[in-house]
Design brief:
Blueprint lengths: L1 E12 L3 E4 H4 L7 H8 L3 E4 L6 H16 L8 E5 L10 H9 L5 E5 L5 H14 L5 E9 L9 H4 L4 E13 L7 E9 L7 E3 L11 E3 L1 H22 L9 E4 L4 H10 L11 H4 L6 H11 L8 E8 L3 E8 L1
Helix pairs in contact: 3-4, 7-8
The structure holds oxa(dethia)-CoA.
């Protein structure tokens, strides 16, 4: 018998305010055509003033708990992936814990930028496999609108706000790759590339700072690394790219998503795509895509999923999961 971390529930939350590409035409030298053609993005959601990352996370968490038929008291741990926590500390995860009324267990944030949800899933899986928690709420939540330089057309048109969450629970499996749950993970980082995607502020500068990106460079790394990490994760459990039912990629750019699917030998029919509606929501993009994939009747119990992401660090990785 092998312990597995199995998905029991999924939920998401998007702030009410929807901003179409055309809105940026009023203040920037940009166009709906450019944004669509270069990124695939058509619209994104922005949090209201005063609406923080933990507010979004709580909504997604409640939806995931409802879907699982569980209450906050059933949860042993919260792992929250974010790069836009409300405050420097305490963690957004403990704020969510308090807001949910959860008075036992433990909660912490994971910061791996756009790869954050992959890292959070890997951490949650490790907690479950090591017996430290039986039920883990894994959340990806971001308010990247708070770190946008609204005068920088090369970044501010790309990002959005949102949150998604999964409830994972311990279940005994056979140890074969036909089991439900997380089957393998592959994590990577290379800190030499910090200059190509970073925020130019933080505690040491006593400012919040703004996101800075050399888009072309990040694009190049993404196309080179994403199919590879997905393949590595699949190979660890004796699976091949062709065995995958659904690719659930980080939603940064439709051209990256297409190139990765092509490298994996899949058509776009096998890919969950939400970038047109959400923009790049960093650590929230994968759980949002999972929630949308389920809601649209695409992802079904027993399907084999591979999910992959890359972002600031650089940090990247993949998770193979049977839904
Ligand atoms: O989630 C974390 C990971 N992030 C990513 O994966 C993002 C990866 N990068 C990308 O998605 C793409 O590189 C971008 C969408 C950011 C940019 O697309 P690109 O095809 O790499 O364009 P570019 O940066 O090479 O810019 C092409 C041109 C430039 O003008 P020149 O130098 O050719 O005259 C830019 O100044 O487009 C210009 N440009 C714009 N034009 C209109 C840049 N931003 C805009 C804009 N509107 N918003």
């Amino acid at each position: 018998m092998t312990t597995r971390a199995v998905v029991r529930g999924v939920g998401h939350y998007l702030p009410d305010r929807v901003v179409r590409n055309s809105e940026f035409e009023k203040t920037l030298d940009t166009s709906d055509e450019w944004i669509r053609a270069r990124s695939g993005i058509e619209r994104r959601h922005f949090a209201a003033e005063g609406q923080s990352t933990s507010d979004l996370a709580v909504r997604a968490a409640r939806a995931a708990l409802d879907d699982a038929g569980m209450s906050p008291g059933d949860i042993d741990a919260i792992v929250l992936a974010t790069s836009t926590a409300d405050l420097t500390f305490p963690s957004a995860a403990t704020m969510v814990q308090a807001e949910l009324g959860m008075t036992r267990g433990f909660a912490f944030d994971v910061q791996a930028v756009c790869a954050g949800f992959i890292y959070a899933l890997a951490n949650a899986n490790a907690l479950i496999l090591s017996g430290q928690a039986n039920r883990v709420l894994v959340i990806g939540a971001e308010t990247f609108s708070k770190i946008m330089d609204w005068t920088d057309r090369s970044t501010c048109v790309l990002f959005g706000d949102g949150a998604g969450a999964l409830v994972l629970e311990t279940q005994e499996g056979s140890g074969r790759n036909t089991d439900r749950g997380i089957l393998s993970t592959d994590l990577n980082s290379d800190g030499r590339h910090r200059e190509i995607l970073y925020v130019d502020g933080g505690v040491s500068t006593q400012t919040t700072g703004y996101l800075r990106m050399q888009g072309k460079e990040v694009f190049r790394h993404a196309v080179e690394k994403l199919a590879k990490t997905a393949h590595t994760a699949l190979t660890k459990v004796g699976l091949k790219d062709k065995d995958v039912d659904w690719i659930v990629p980080h939603q940064a750019n439709l051209r990256i998503i297409k190139a990765t699917a092509q490298k994996m030998g899949h058509s776009m029919d096998d890919v969950i795509v939400t970038v047109q509606d959400h923009g790049n929501t960093s650590a929230a993009s994968i759980p949002l895509a999972l929630a949308v994939g389920v809601a649209r009747g695409k992802i079904h119990r027993g399907d084999l999923l591979v999910t992959e992401a890359i972002g600031g660090g650089l940090a990247w990785g993949a998770v193979v999961l049977r839904w």
